[in-house]
Amino acid sequence: MKKLSARRRHPLAAVVVLLLALAATGGLYTAFAPADKAQAETVAQSLAIDEGKKLYAVGCASCHGTGGEGSTDGPALAGVGAAAVDFQVGTGRMPAQQPGAQVPKKKVIYSQAQIDQLAAFVASLGAGPGVPAKEQYNPEGADIAEGGELFRTNCAQCHNFTGKGGALTNGKSAPTLEDVDPKHIYEAMQTGPQNMPSFPDTTLTEKNKKDIIAYLDVVNSDDSESPGGLELGGLGPVSEGLFGWIFGLGGLIAVAVWVAARTAKAKKS
């Protein structure tokens, strides 16, 4: 007892007790404390992948294969990335109603939460473009003039110079870009859906894409005015040429007939 009392009175006894208490507290916290933010995100991502796999098995596996390997009815999905899923499913193009040259935009059947889960599962099959953040596709502060130049150089051949869309070969078409969510426009440029080529950041930078989105936002705005007057739908030389032939040439013919009739009447008099 004297030896134990002596140890208790030792100058380092309080320090030893404090260290033991801290070690015990740290161990208990590690054992019972909730997971930190990184662990929580990992768990949430894992759950999203599991839920996405279930949705995929019901709505996508029949065409794309149970593991995303693809089939005669649908391409492989490894490496397409979450952005491709968010675009295709978020615009209603997928699941496809029926096979064909062009898969049209239609009513979306999944909620955004379900789309995110599907995207998480497909992204787990292989690295690919991720869903862009709002600051990446928000057109505020972008260079509209530069966007117009980029759009006319890279996109107008198919989509028309104001994004009204147009016909392609073999029953395919470039869809109109009016009233399309800026996020989906960004994702389309990033992933190249269907007949469209992809424009990764090495081809069109993030700023370039934002500039193009800003240009489309202006030319398709209800408040925008055509500097050339009546835009005839903004469909380009076909509609303008048709207008010229029907009304312009038609008007000239009508005037010529009127002049001839007046001349003939004058001669009779």
What's the SSE blueprint?
Blueprint: H1 2-8, H2 13-32, H3 37-59, H4 61-64, H5 81-90, H6 112-124, H7 134-137, H8 144-154, H9 156-159, E1 166-167, E2 173-174, H10 182-191, H11 206-219, H12 237-268
Antiparallel strand pairs: 1-2
Domain Cytochrome c: 47-126, 142-220
Subcellular location: Cell membrane
Subunit structure: The cytochrome bc1 complex is composed of a cytochrome b (QcrB), the Rieske iron-sulfur protein (QcrA) and a diheme cytochrome c (QcrC) subunit.
Could you give a quick summary of the protein structure above?
The protein has 269 residues and is an all-alpha fold. It has 12 helices and 2 strands; from the N terminus they run αααααααααββααα.
